[in-house]
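User: Hey, my collaborator sent me this sequence without any context and asked if I could get a structure. I don't really work with proteins. Can you help?
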Amino acid sequence: MEFMAHHPLTIKGTNVFLPTGLLLDGAQLHEASGAAIEIEGHSSLDITASLSAAVQPVLDARNMGLSASWWASLFRLVKQRTGIDMNRQTVPLAPTVGHTIGGLPVDGNGRCVVGTWARWFTGLYAAGGAACTGLHGAAPLAGNRLLDALASGTSAGKHAGEWVASRKFSTAAGLEAALEDAEADVSAMMDSDESTHVVRCGTVMDTLHSALASTSTLSADSMGSLQAKLEQLNITAESLHLDQRSLIANTNLLEVLRTQAAVRLVMASVQSGMARKESRGSFVREDFPESNDDFLHHITVDREGNTGTLAIKKGAGGHWVLPPQ
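Assistant: No problem. I've predicted the 3D structure and written it out in structure-token form, which is a compact way to encode the shape of the chain:
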């Protein structure tokens, strides 16, 4: 979970990601004052580093010439979402975390493993962004998330179908108990008393984004400070206000659950990052700038925040399963 993929061309104050292909077709990066922004390389990491060091970075797509016609649909989307006309105006940018490479550790068949490759969480499968499939290594390539979802989803679905067909289920006591617990949690949220102090999802998400943005470099001190902020934010997220009380198509409840999950996932990322005392791939620690083969394994974090390790291994074809780099 410590391997975070930053997206450099994120419109400030939104979750709208602009493709880096705009730069290849003539769009330029500079300060709002007009001063040029020097970029050492062409990778997302290089662009993110340069934009993070800038004061007020903007994307200028006003002089793309004939190439602009290829991006007409994107320009319309940006105008609908933000009101910015990219043919006439510059776009303010704020690099942000696009996604984490981690997730539930799975084998080549999409089966979730627990602590060791020999122990399968029976019946649980994961794929795509919810799983750590190993397809991305420690630094993802742009556009590969869809490939990961298609490949791992196909593999997991095929194996799950075959496994279910060969099973005879005798009792559902465990499933029924889990369902009762989930229903009790939802009922508690629905029955909560009205409070004079109302906390909204937007406030929690803005605070989460600000906390991440303020952590420009990773070290024991910076991650410790970030973790303290997240622990406090996690308490706040547990008291999010629920306006809708229906159990049918309750989008408000969905957003509350998503917001709470987002805080927990970032906490897990920071906890695993503190346990990895090296730099590798997209994960770079200021206090441990070199890679260390002693950490050539995967770091796991459970729901209670306890960290563990999962060894790397090779599959039957000789390829790494969950490769570290």
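In plain terms: The chain has eight helices and 13 strands. You can pass these tokens on to your collaborator as they are.
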